[in-house]
Structure formats: structure tokens, C-alpha cells
Amino acid sequence: MLMQKQDAGLLVVDIQDKLLPAVHDAEGLLARSRWLVGVARDNGLPIVFSEQYPRGLGGTVAALREAAPQAPVVDKLHFSCVAADCLPSELTQKRQIIVCGMEAHVCVLQTALELLAAGKQVFVVADAVSSRQPRDIELALSRLRAAGAAIVSREMVLFELLGKSGGEHFKLMSQRYLIGDQP
């Protein structure tokens, strides 16, 4: 299955101020997630940010919010966004959900598994998820793959949303996301 622009949305799970410094390669995760948010925004996908217990863990990192200022932010106490019943219909109406964020083995894993159980096609962006321990990232991705999630890279997301080369949109996306130093 390929990602289709008209059928997809992006869920950014819990990349929050107080939790981000604790995860493996925090700077890289933030840079790659911001890149992914930009790709989703520039392709017209709905974007949703979730926050786990924001009173204690802080809000979504400002750099991400600035990349998609119109995107809704939902808060939760459940680890899974699905169990928390907090996702807006603009995302849940989509049949394909692209997921990035943290922690891969907790909130990302539980959310993605429950999205799969709800009949969604789930694409977990391997280079835009993290946990405190690298081994937990590996285990989460392995479990998600076994459960039926597609494990993808950021560039897979970009090229599948584009679908073809040529035209002004492709040129713009190439200039923004492929040329020069990329995270």
C-alpha cells in the first residue's frame, strides 16, 4: 500500500518540552519531525499534535508548533491517543495515519496498535520516532511491523505523497526538502 495524499493525515505524538531532552538523539528527532511536519503541511495533510500530561511534561516543542500553527493540539492521560479518545475527526476520517514522535515503545506503539485495530493503515516513520533507550526503539518498530504497520522513512512519505515528478509542486518540494543539508 502506498500513502495517498487525499487519504492521509499526520499524528505527532508527545514531542514535549520536558520529555524531549530525555530521549535518544533528541536534536535529531526534533529536526526530522519538523521536516516531516513541513512536508505534511505543504501537501495539505491534516496534522495533529498530542501531548501526554502537559501539565507535568510541558507542551509540544515550539519549533514544531511554529511549523504547523493551525494544527490542533490534544492532551491525554492514556498512553494511546485512541484509548484517550482525543483525536479530532479531521484525522480519524482519514484511512491512512502517518505517525511520528515519542516514546516509540510507549505512546507511539500503543497509539499505532490501536489505530491498526480500528482498521486504519498506519505508517510509522522510523527516522522520526525515539525513546530514551535505542533498544526500545528497535523493539517497538519490530513489534509494529509484525502487527501490520508499515515502517517507513521520511523520504518515503515525501515521495509517496508527491506520486510523480515534474510540475511546480514537485519543484517546490524538492527545493525545500531534498536540496542542501537535510536533518
Automatic annotation (TrEMBL):
UniProt keyword annotation of Hydrolase present: yes
Hydrolase is among the record's keywords: yes
Record-level Gene Ontology MF annotations: hydrolase activity
Domain Isochorismatase-like: 10-155
Pfam families with a match to the protein in the record: Isochorismatase
Gene3D superfamilies: Isochorismatase-like
InterPro entries with a match to the protein in the record: Isochorismatase-like_dom, Isochorismatase-like_sf, Isochorismatase_domain
Coiled coil ranges: none
Keywords per UniProt: Hydrolase
Protein name stated in the entry: Hydrolase
